[in-house]
Each structure stands twice: as structure tokens, then as C-alpha cells.
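> forwarded from #structure-qc
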């Protein structure tokens, strides 16, 4: 029997208010159940079942080694937000990753609400989530590492275990939790492991064709699940809450081997309404250049090569990857969220997304290719 993720929504009830009778829907819930093949159709037909998808492995988008001096002034923050007077004050961001080193001085004074979905406990054994969180809201150090250091409340969902592995229901549960906690922005530097699933099946003796076909079916089901959850985030906007979701495009491209080896962004970056982020580096002339490893078809791009941020256990560390580009966009989104609210308008995922795209820079690139850079590099208000 396979394990399936089941998204349920209770049937609408009625509520009597000043406007008369209206429909009221309960929050959705997720569960994971082992279901025999013959019972699957019956389950899908149940009225409260919104969607069913097989579990799929997920993994950390592993960063690349970087040679930049960790004590050097972080160029990414200066590039995207160096001139902004906004700090992200009043904005709540969720980081769904490997956890966080809550004792790091960069997070002093920030209310960190941690929840473990991986089964390995809170904390950050790998340092990836700590580094990404530092890029978004790290503060209080001699060197500025955070794009939005005024953020004072952050949701830290540990959706990958201490080895950097997980499964899709951990991400989905983390997203629903972040929405329940009224996150304004959700940042994810992780991926759905299609190649790993194929490898796992072939190691069990499956023919390559069958292993690939099953992985494709599972990927398709999880894409639908992700899109369904994203649709729920949009629906919440009618009730005054919404969340902008930002995800790393991925590090699978191999332009350095062959210019044709450019892979497109995968889940979660490929889902509807998710802002996918490509990684940029700099040439010796100071121009932007897409990183050799960065996947294509991103929405936006941001600094992702030689990025200095918080290191687990204290101090700073420099890494490269679309994992590092993603939190730059999440941080800039927080600045736009604050700026829109300060203008007297209601900030939401839709108008913040519009500002990010409308103000993205397309100049300053060694070579412009929208397939690689999306609409351009993000710019803070």
C-alpha cells in the first residue's frame, strides 16, 4: 500500500449574522494514510476530500562552496536594499527550511516561533535555515547581513530533517501552519526530489521506465496539491489575510559544462503564484551574471553567489546558491509590504508581488536573457 497525503476541508456550515445566512468554511486539514489501490477511488469521491496525492521525497537545495571572505561587506544586501529607508517592521515572515540557530546573536530580539515537522526536533544541524533567515532579517552585527532587519516576528518551520531530507507532506503542513499563524511572506529554499525518487525505485529493482513513470505521477499529484494550497492562500485574501510565497529556482543547471544544460525551475518554485528566484553573481566589471548552477524560468533574480550570513554556532559563513537568492527576495518583499502599508493602503500578497515585478531592474547585466533572470533583479522601495 502506498502512503497518500489527503487534503480535507469540512463541508460548509451556515452562520447567521447581520447580513443574513452565509456559508462558513472550516480551515483545511492534512493527513497521511496508507491506502490500498482498490480504496483510492472511493476516498477521492468523499465530499470533504479536496485532493489526494502520493507522498514525495523533498530535499535541501544544497548551496555551493564560496571563496568570498566572510568578513567582507555582504554585496547582496547593498545591491537590493542599500538605499531603502524601510526595515520590514511589522511584517511576519515564515522560513520553511532546516530550522534555525535561535541563539545566534543575529536573531537577538526577534520573536522566533519554531515548529518541527521533520521529526528531528527544533534547531539547525545543517546551518542552511540559519543562513537563509539571516539574509532575510539578521541584525545587530557589525556587518549588515539582513535585508529586512526590522522584522521582529518570524515563523520557523523545520520541514527538512538533520540530513536535509523530508517529504512533501512536511512542506504542506508547514505552509498551512504558516498561514494559520498569519505569515505575510513564506520563504522556501528547497525542492521536490524527482531524481532521488527515481534513483530510490531503481535501487529497489524497478525498471527505469517504470520508476520514472511513477515519479512523474507522484510529482504531478504533488503539483496539484501545491496549487490547491496556493489557491487557498489567495482565497484568504478576501478575509484580510494573504501570504506571498517565494521559492528558490534550484541549482541543477550545468552551464559550465554545456550552455544547453539549463534545467527549468521545479517544485515548489514551479507552482502557480509562487515567485521563483534565480541566483546572480557579478563579473569582474561589476555586472550581474546568472550563476552557472541557477535554473531557468524564474520570476525574478537576486544575488546568490558569495553571500555572507549567519552561521550555526555563531559568526558568519559565505555560501552560494539559489537558496541564498530566495531570501533576498523575501526580505525585499517585506520592505515593500511595510512601504505599501505606510502609504495608507492595505498591503497584501497581490500588490507586493506587483511591486516586486514592476520595479525589478533589467539593466546592469552582462547579458540579458529573461529565461534566466526573469523580470530582473529585485529592488527595495
Amino acid at each position: 500500500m502506498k502512503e497518500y497525503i489527503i487534503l480535507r476541508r469540512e463541508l460548509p456550515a451556515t452562520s447567521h449574522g447581520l447580513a443574513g445566512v452565509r456559508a462558513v468554511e472550516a480551515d483545511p486539514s492534512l493527513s497521511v494514510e496508507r491506502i490500498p489501490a482498490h480504496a483510492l477511488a472511493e476516498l477521492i469521491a468523499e465530499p470533504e476530500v479536496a485532493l489526494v496525492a502520493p507522498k514525495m521525497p523533498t530535499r535541501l537545495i544544497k548551496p555551493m562552496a564560496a571563496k568570498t571572505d566572510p568578513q567582507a561587506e555582504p554585496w547582496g544586501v547593498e545591491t537590493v536594499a542599500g538605499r531603502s529607508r524601510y526595515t520590514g517592521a511589522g511584517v511576519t515572515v515564515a522560513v520553511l527550511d532546516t530550522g534555525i540557530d535561535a541563539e545566534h546573536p543575529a536573531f537577538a530580539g526577534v520573536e522566533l516561533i519554531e515548529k518541527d515537522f521533520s521529526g528531528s526536533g527544533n534547531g539547525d544541524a545543517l546551518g542552511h535555515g540559519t543562513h537563509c533567515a539571516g539574509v532575510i532579517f539578521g541584525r545587530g552585527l557589525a556587518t549588515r547581513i539582513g535585508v529586512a532587519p526590522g522584522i521582529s516576528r518570524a515563523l520557523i518551520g523545520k520541514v527538512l530533517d538533520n540530513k536535509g531530507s523530508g517529504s512533501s507532506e512536511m512542506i504542506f503542513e508547514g505552509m498551512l501552519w504558516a498561514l494559520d499563524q498569519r505569515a505575510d511572506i513564506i520563504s522556501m529554499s528547497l525542492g521536490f526530489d524527482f531524481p532521488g525518487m527515481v534513483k530510490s525505485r531503481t535501487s529497489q529493482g524497478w525498471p527505469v521506465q517504470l520508476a520514472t513513470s511513477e515519479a512523474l505521477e507522484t510529482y504531478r499529484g504533488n503539483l496539484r496539491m501545491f496549487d490547491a494550497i496556493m489557491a487557498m492562500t489567495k482565497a484568504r485574501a478576501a478575509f484580510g489575510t494573504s501570504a506571498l510565497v517565494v521559492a528558490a529556482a534550484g541549482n541543477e543547471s550545468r552551464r559550465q559544462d554545456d550552455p544547453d544544460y539549463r534545467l527549468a525551475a521545479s517544485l515548489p518554485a514551479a507552482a502557480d503564484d509562487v515567485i521563483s528566484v534565480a541566483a546572480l553573481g557579478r563579473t569582474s566589471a561589476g555586472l550581474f551574471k546568472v550563476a552557472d548552477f541557477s535554473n531557468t524560468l524564474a520570476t525574478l533574480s537576486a544575488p546568490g553567489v558569495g553571500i555572507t550570513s549567519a552561521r550555526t554556532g555563531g559568526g558568519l559563513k559565505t555560501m552560494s546558491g539559489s537558496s541564498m537568492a530566495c531570501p533576498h527576495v523575501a526580505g525585499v518583499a517585506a520592505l515593500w509590504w511595510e512601504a505599501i502599508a505606510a502609504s495608507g493602503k492595505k498591503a497584501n500578497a497581490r500588490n507586493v508581488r506587483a511591486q516586486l515585478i514592476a520595479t525589478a531592474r533589467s539593466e546592469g547585466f552582462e547579458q540579458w536573457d529573461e529565461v534566466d533572470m526573469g523580470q530582473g533583479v529585485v529592488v527595495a522601495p
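QC bot note: The radius of gyration is 21 Å. The chain has a mean pLDDT of 91.
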